[in-house]
Amino acid sequence: MIYLLKFGASFVLPPGIFFLLAWALSVYIYKKGLKSASLFLTGITFVFYFLSTGLVAGWLMSNLESIHDQPSDPRGDVIVMLGGGATSDTPNLGETGNITSSPASRLLMTCELYHRLHVPIVLSGGQVYEDSGKEAVIARRELIRLGVKDEDIFTEPDSLNTRQNAVNTTKILSEKGWKEPVLVTSAFHMERSVLNFKKEGIDVTPCPADYMANRKQVFHYNKLMPQADSLYISNLVLREKLRTFVTRYLE
Question: What pLDDT sits at residue 8?
Answer without folding.
Answer: 81
